[in-house]
Amino acid sequence: MLLAGKKTSELKREIAKTVVCPKCDSVNSTQVSVIGIYKHLFHIPFLSGGKLGKSVCSNCTQEYELETMPSSIKLAYYELKETVKTPIWFYGGLIVIKTLVLIKIFSKYF
């Protein structure tokens, strides 16, 4: 049983309107995704681990990771990434622990 590790969650997916697939030369067929990474303990998310990028052409099923994306797809990824915020639930475990500590501290005074 793994106690701690990393998991991913797709934050946003969008079809890039102006991107032409480098393999099949089709327009409006490339889906660009922003994927969030979070670190968990007992499957409870504690910390954000950053964001990754991925693109898939729906016409020829060509996939690119962020490191291997052509520059036109990378530009569409960075534009999409600017609109995506890290979800608050990525820090759910920390919020619960801080709340419990504050309850413990203030319970001495009331």
Structure, explained:
The protein has 110 residues and is of the alpha+beta class. The protein has one domain (4-107). The chain contains two helices and four strands, in the order ββββαα. It has a four-stranded antiparallel β-sheet with strand order 1-2-3-4. A hairpin with a 2-residue loop joins strand 2 and strand 3. This is Zinc-ribbon domain-containing protein. The chain crosses the membrane at residues 88-106. Keywords: Membrane, Transmembrane, Transmembrane helix.
Beta-strand segment tally: 4
Distance between the termini: 41 Å
> Which strand-content bin applies to the residues?
35-45%
How many structural domains does the protein architecture include?
1
Describe the main β-sheet briefly: 4 strands, antiparallel
Structural class estimated from helices and strands: alpha+beta
The global form is: elongated
- Uncertain runs with pLDDT below 50, 5 residues or more? none
The strand line-up of the biggest sheet is: 1-2-3-4
Rg for CA atoms: 19 Å
Mean pLDDT figure: 92
Helix content: 25-40%
Helix and strand sequence? EEEEHH
Our count of helices gives 2
Can you lay out the helices and strands and say which pair or pack?
Layout: E1 4-15, E2 30-41, E3 44-57, E4 63-65, H1 71-83, H2 92-107
Antiparallel strand pairs: 1-2, 2-3, 3-4
